[in-house]
Amino acid sequence: MCQVYVRADPILYESRSRSLRIHGVVTTLRLENLFWDTLAEMAAAEGVTTNQLIATLHDEVTAYRGEVDNFASFLRVTCMRYRQLQGESAASGRQAAPAGDGSAPAPLMLVGGVG
């Protein structure tokens, strides 16, 4: 079993910092490349930039829970939940519409199952 994981490309777990602006405040987030890739995929599905998606997620979690102590961890969990929901959709035989096909993207299930 471990071979599946230990043979992963090291670039996937290499960390990268990115600066972005949330409500005019510049902040830096450090995440592993796999999470940045997942956030970019989520953003593309929503038709927004990765920075816009992150700002939206920040607004939504703040409105739902108040201030978040560790926003980077929240983003990692969000990515994992996104992948989990993709797996559940695939297992049930539902196919997600590809981005850019003219249909409206399905809403993301974010904080506590709230889309």
| Whole-number mean pLDDT | 83
Helical coverage, percent range? 40-55%
Shape: globular
Strand element count = 2
SS strand fraction: 5-15%
Count of individual helical segments: 5
Major sheet summary line: 2 strands, antiparallel
Please identify the structural class as seen in this structure.
Answer: alpha+beta
Gyration radius (Cα, Å) is 15 Å
Poorly predicted runs are 97-107, 109-115
Distance between the termini: 34 Å
Oligomer: single chain
Query: Can you write the helix and strand succession as a string?
Result: HHEEHHH
- Please give the order of strands in the largest beta sheet: 1-2
Summary?
By secondary structure, this protein is of the alpha+beta class.
Please name the defining characteristics of this protein.
115 residues; alpha+beta; two-stranded antiparallel sheet; 52% helix; globular
Write a structural description.
The chain is of the alpha+beta class. The protein is built from 5 helices and 2 strands, in the order ααββααα. It has a two-stranded antiparallel ribbon. Strand 1 and strand 2 form a beta hairpin. The radius of gyration is 15 Å and the shape is globular. It starts with a helix and ends in a 24-residue tail after the last helix. The C terminus is likely disordered.
